[in-house]
Specification:
There is one protein chain. By secondary structure, the chain is mostly beta strands. It has a domain at 1-186. The protein is 7% helix and 42% strand. The chain has four helices and 31 strands. The protein has helices spanning 3-16, 21-26, 387-390, 396-402, and strands at 53-57, 63-67, 74-75, 90-97, 103-110, 116-123, 134-139, 143-149, 155-161, 166-172, 178-183, 187-191, 197-202, 213-218, 226-227, 239-240, 246-252, 259-265, 272-277, 280-285, 291-300, 303-312, 319-322, 326-331, 337-343, 365-371, 376-383, 412-418, 424-430, 438-442, 445-448. A four-stranded antiparallel sheet has the order 3-2-1-31, with no helix packed on it. A four-stranded antiparallel sheet has the order 4-5-6-7, with no helix packed on it. A four-stranded antiparallel sheet has the order 8-9-10-11. The longest helix has 14 residues, at 3-16.
């Protein structure tokens, strides 16, 4: 992820916990988060999956799991301590469900021993009882800030930052070890569906850096990533196709005027052109692999302008979905809908953060849903996002692959809003019945289980 904005968010969090500047600089992380430390007990993998539940960071800094009505609340951590007077200050962040919906990974930050960051996973064996998290990784120097489960739920890939560099790592979900796979910045990744490799985009555009590359990281052979023979363009996260035989990415054009959105085979060869664009692009496959949506953002004389497009995976039938400058979008699990966020009328805020973790100006967003079959757009709700939720949006194409905003049945989206009195709360908006968004609980961010 991008180094600067991650740093601002991480530094604010670290300052809250009075952790040294070196670890604060390590928070040069890409954009999500908050989180934890604490005692962890190894435990068996959960045998019963948690179905249709949400993981949230509560008002007290702990991690909770609850159902879509806000009930059946279970604490995965209980030792967060946010008060200045606490002997050890501690909080949790970046909750992330495993694809089998049996575990929740998250990060913990603590002020003990001069500052400590940890990666945890909690098995959801019985949602009616509390469970102890298992510590997968900890460091006094490196700050994990982005988590991405492997499709088989056996590993967690994570990016970690210290005051010198950013690294890609994996941690075994059973706590048996970690492995570093590469270094660089900015760093974006996508898992192969068979969980045996990751594709990465490192260093930005080839125009920005001669060292920028797209690479393949094998979990079977390890070693240095294999660099694909592709000059990366202006984009962030590559995306492996649901079938696992193709990769979606963008190439830098020789004329420096425009870049090309392409689908290639897993070796970066035999590319298929989808679109030419100027500016920046973010994209995502539909879950069924039949369509690709992409958001093009350009700087114009009137400011930033963005358009959401959709195209068949074979490159045919390109369609303009929205031209009202959406800032992010997320495919529904059934591939029938796209939820997008646009700046609300009169909203002046931007996706930029100050050093104390406050948005520079109040950002108001509107959820809209596009029905793919008829391109019908419906507005759902307008809200002021929490900083934790807003921090996902500049990197939505990365987070769209690594966490779940939609409910498993494709009927609702979860978001975190700042209320009029400043309280942060988790809401669920139904996308099909036109019901008013429902408030579930207080909290800074929430994510849905995959099933």
């Amino acid at each position: 992820m991008e180094r600067e904005s991650r740093l601002k968010i991480g530094c604010a969090l670290m300052t809250c916990l009075t952790i040294p500047l070196m670890l604060c600089a390590a928070a040069v992380v890409f954009g999500p988060g908050l989180n934890l430390n604490g005692v962890s007990l190894p435990g068996a993998r959960a045998s019963a999956p948690a179905v249709d539940r949400l993981a949230v960071i509560g008002e007290d800094g702990n991690v909770y799991v609850l159902d879509r009505s806000g009930q059946s609340r279970v604490a995965l951590t209980t030792n967060a301590a946010l008060a200045q007077s606490a002997a050890v200050r501690r909080l949790y962040a970046f909750p992330n469900w495993s694809p089998d919906s049996e575990q929740v990974a998250f990060v913990g930050l603590s002020s003990e021993n001069g500052g400590k960051a940890s990666l945890f996973a909690a098995g959801i064996k019985d949602v009616r009882s509390e469970t102890q998290p298992l510590e997968l990784y900890s460091s006094e120097d490196n700050f994990p800030f982005f988590l991405f489960w492997s499709p088989n739920s056996k590993r967690v890939a994570f990016l970690a930052q210290n005051d010198q560099e950013m690294s890609l790592n994996t941690a075994n979900a059973d706590g048996s070890g970690t492995q570093e796979l590469g270094k660089g910045a900015p760093f974006y990744i996508s898992w192969s569906p068979d969980s045996q490799s990751l594709v990465s985009h490192v260093g930005g555009s080839r125009r920005q850096s001669a060292d920028a590359f797209i690479g393949l990281h094998s979990l079977t052979t390890l070693g240095q990533p294999q660099h694909l023979s592709i000059a990366p363009g202006n984009f962030l996260a590559p995306a492996w196709s649901p079938a696992g035989n193709e990769i979606l990415m963008a190439l830098a054009s020789p004329d420096n005027r425009s870049d090309t959105l392409v689908v290639s085979d897993s070796r970066g060869e035999q590319t298929r052109t989808l679109a030419q664009y100027a500016g920046n692009v973010g994209f995502a496959w539909s879950r069924d692999g039949k369509h690709i949506a992409y958001l093009i953002t350009q700087q114009t004389s009137a400011g930033l302008k963005s358009e959401l497009h959709m195209v068949n995976a074979d490159g045919s039938h390109e369609l303009l979905i929205a031209d009202d400058s959406p800032v992010a979008f997320f495919w529904s699990p059934d591939s029938a809908k796209i939820a997008m966020l646009t700046r609300a009328s009169g909203g002046q805020g931007g996706l930029v953060f100050t050093g104390d973790n406050r948005q520079q100006a109040q950002l108001r967003l509107t959820w809209k849903v596009v029905t793919v079959a008829d391109n019908k757009v419906s507005s759902l709700v307008t809200f002021v996002p929490t900083d934790a939720f807003a921090s996902l949006l500049p990197y939505f194409d990365q987070y769209a692959q690594s966490l779940q905003i939609w409910s498993p049945d494709s009927q609702a989206v979860v978001y975190a809003a700042q209320e009029n009195d400043g309280t942060e709360a988790i809401y669920v908006a139904d996308t099909s019945r036109g019901e008013q968004a429902r408030r579930l609980t207080t909290g800074s961010i929430g994510v849905w289980s995959y099933r």
